[in-house]
Amino acid sequence: MAVKVVFLHGIGDGDPRAGWLEGLNRGLTQAGHEPIDRTHTLAPRYSSILSTDGNGAKMPPVTYRAKDDTKARFEFARRQARIQRTVGLPSTPSGIGAHLIPEGPLNAAQGFAVENVAAYDLTQVRRYVRNEPLRGEILRHLLDQDYGDEIVLIGHSLGSVIAIDLLDHLPETVHVRRFITIGSPAAAPSLHEGSERLLKRFPYARVDDWSNIFNPADVLTGGRGLPSTFPAAQDFAIDIGLFEHGAGAYLGHPATAGLVAQIIYPSKGLVLSKPEVAVRLTDDQASVLLLLHYGHAVARHIKDQDAAARYAGALRLRQDQVIAEIEELAAVGRQPLAAELHQLVDGQLPMVTHRWELHEVVSELVVLALTNVVDPYEIDVERAPIQAIPDIAFLLGFSTDVGEKVVRAIEDVQRGLDRRGGVPWGRVLTAAAGLALLAAGPVGLMVAAPAGAAGAAAIVGGLAGFGPGGMVGGLAMLGGFAGAGAAVAAAAVAGGGGELGPEADLNTLVLRVTVEHARKMLDLPFDHNLWYQLADAETRVCAQVNRFEAFSGAKSPRLTMLREIRDSLGRLMKFVIDNGLAPRAITVGDERPIDPDELTPVAIG
Q: How far is residue 567's CA from residue 521's CA, in Å, rounded to a whole number?
C-alpha cells in the first residue's frame, strides 16, 4: 500500500489502543474491503504536549508557495463534485440535533463548552488555539514524522483543527490524496476569537479534496459543518447516534470508510460494454451533446482570459456530470449505449450528426443562445454566446447565415421587450418554472433557481411545445441540466398551461415568439396563432392584477411582478403584429368584415 493513512487524534490520551483504526476497519470490511494493517498507518500522539505547561516552539515555516494555483483550484472543484456524486449524502443536517439551535445561542453554548465542559477535557482545545508556542511545538512534532509521498489525512475533533493548521506546513514532497475531518469543532467562533491562526490560503495544489463528516447530534460540532469558516471544505451529515462523537463511530460509517477505500483500494472503474448492434442516439441525448458543443464554442469566443479559464473549469464540471449520468445509466443496465456516449466517457467530444431539419434547428439554436450551459455558475462572457451560434449552425450542416438570423431574431424580440434596448449577453437568461421573478435578463426576465420535482415533472411532460425531444428534452433528461436555461420554463408551460406561474408563461411565450420570428426571417412556415396565446396569457395576468389590487399595497412585490409581466405581454403582442406574425384576422382593421373562417379556435396552454 503506497498511500499511508495518517490519523490526528482529538482530546484525551491520544487513543493508544487505536480505536479509530478498529472503527475504520469495521467499515472497510463491511464494504467488502481488506482491513488496513497498523503498519500502513501513522497516528502520532501529542496529548502529553497539550497537557504540560511550559511547552513551546517557534511556528514552522509555511511551505506552500504556489504563485498561481488557479488551475489546481478548478481541478479541486471537479474532484469535490465527483465526491459529492459518489457519497450521495446531504450537506445539511436533518432530524434532531444541535443545528436546530439558533446561531447566537449555539455559538454561546460552544464557547461555554470550550471553556468549561470538563467531561470532554476541552482545556486541551483552549490551550491549543490560544497558545501559539504550544501550537508551534505540536506542529513541529508532527512534521518530524515520516509521511512518505502520499497520504490520506484524517483529523478527529481537536485533531481536525490541528490537521487544518498542518496543511500549509507539510513538506513539499508530501501530497494529500484525501483530507477528511470528522467531528470537527473548527467552525466554532470561540476557537478563533482574537486569533490570526486561521488557514489563510488553502493549498489547492497540495490537497486533492476535503470532506468534512459531522453528526448533527454531536454537540462538539454544534450540529454544523465547516464551509462557513473554511470554504474549501465539503460537508456531509451522517447519523451515528445522539451525542456520539467517537472517532471509531465516525470512521465506521459507510460514507467515511468509503472515502478512505476509494484511495487505498482504488477500483479500476466501470468498463462500459459496447453493444454488438449499433445503437442510435436518442434526440435528447443528441441535444445534450449539442449543448456541450455549444459550451465549448462559447469558451472559444471568450476574450477575457480569467473569465475563459473559469468558464472552461465550470464546463468541465458539467461534462463530468454528464459522464457520471451515462455511467450510472450503463451500470443499472437500462439500455445499451450509443457509440457517441462511449466516446464521451473516454474523454472525447463526439461529433453531432446532421439529424435536425432547418425548422427544428431554429428552435435548438434559440434555446441554446438563451441557455447558461454552466448554470448555476454565473460568468460574464460578454458576447461569446451569440458569437457561438453561427458556429453551431455550421456544425449542424447549415450556413452560418442561419445562426446570424437567429441571433438577429433574439435581439429584435429583446428590443421589443426592453425599452432600454440591447441584449446583456454576458448574463444569459436562466429560467425555472414557478419560481420568483428576480431581474431583467436578455429576453426580459430571469428566474431564480432550478425547478424542483414538480417543475421537472412538468418539463418532461411538456416537450410537445418544442417538438419531440430536442434541446428542451435534452435539458430535462439529465437532472444536472434541469435548471440550465430558459428551456426549463418553456417546456413546463408548453405542456400544462399557467399553473406554474405567469413568469414561466412569459418566458415560454418569449421563446415561442423568438422561434417563430426567426423562422419567418428564414422564409420557413411559422405559427400564425401565437397572438391568441399571448392574448390569453395577458387576460389571465390582468385578472390576477385586478384580484390582488383590491387588498395588496401599491408596492407589493407580487403586484409589481405581475404588472411587469402584463406590460411585457403587451409589448410581445405589438411585436407579433408589427413583424407580420399575427393572424390576418387581427391585422385587417375595420376596412372589411372579418371572415369567420379566419377566427379558427386555438387551443391555449
A: 25
Q: What is the pTM of this model?
A: 0.71
State which fold the 4-264 domain adopts.
Rossmann fold (3.40.50)
- To the nearest 10°, report the CA torsion of 241, 161, 38, 44: -140
Split at pLDDT 50, 70, 90, the class of 109 is: low
pLDDT category of residue 458 using cuts at 50, 70 and 90: very low
| Burial per residue of 449-476, b for 16 or more beta-carbon CB atoms within 10 angstroms, e otherwise | ebbeeebbebbbebbebbbebbbbbbbb
Confidence band, pLDDT 50/70/90 cuts, at residue 273: low
β-strand 446-447 against 150-156: which pairing, if any? unpaired
The answer on pLDDT for 41 being more than 90 is yes
| Strand-pair partners of 236 | 213
- State the angle between helix axes of 557-578 and 400-417 in degrees (0 to 180), rounded to the nearest 10: 130
Mean pLDDT in residue range 327-339: 72
- Rounded distance between C-alpha atoms, residue 521 and residue 461, angstroms: 30
CA–CA distances in Å: residue 562 to residues 209, 432, 510, 571? 46, 17, 16, 14
Q: How far apart are CA 457 and CA 495, in angstroms?
A: 10
Domain boundaries, the chain: 4-264, 283-526, 527-605
Q: β-strand 41-42 against 4-8: which pairing, if any? A: parallel
Reduced to 3 states, what is the DSSP secondary structure of residue 464?
Answer: helix
Phi, psi at residue 150, to the nearest 5°?
-130, 140
Lookup result for grid cell 482491513: 35
Beta strand 210-214 pairing with 175-182: parallel
Amino acid at 303: K
In degrees to the nearest 10, what's the CA dihedral of 235, 240, 243, 244? -100
Q: How many CB atoms lie within 10 A of CB 378?
A: 13
Which pairs from 556-565 meet CB under 8 Å and 24+ separation? 561/436, 561/437, 561/502, 561/503, 562/502, 564/437, 564/445, 565/437, 565/445, 565/502, 565/503, 565/505, 565/506, 565/541
Classified as helix, coil or strand, 146 is coil
In this structure, how many other beta carbons lie within 10 angstroms of the beta carbon of residue 328?
Answer: 12
Cell of 146: 515520516
Helix segments in 88-122, DSSP class H? 103-116
List alpha helices for 432-582, DSSP H. 453-461, 470-477, 487-496, 502-521, 530-549, 557-578
Cβ atoms of 401 and 380 closer than 8 Å: no
What the block records as the C-alpha cell of 494 is 408548453
Number of alpha carbons in the 13 Å side-chain half-sphere of residue 377: 20
User: What would the mean pLDDT of 547-574 be, rounded to a whole number?
Assistant: 89
Yes or no: say if 363 and 512 are a contact pair by the CB < 8 Å rule.
no
Scored b (16 or more CB within 10 A) or e, 1-23 reads: eebbbbbbbbbeebbeebebbeb
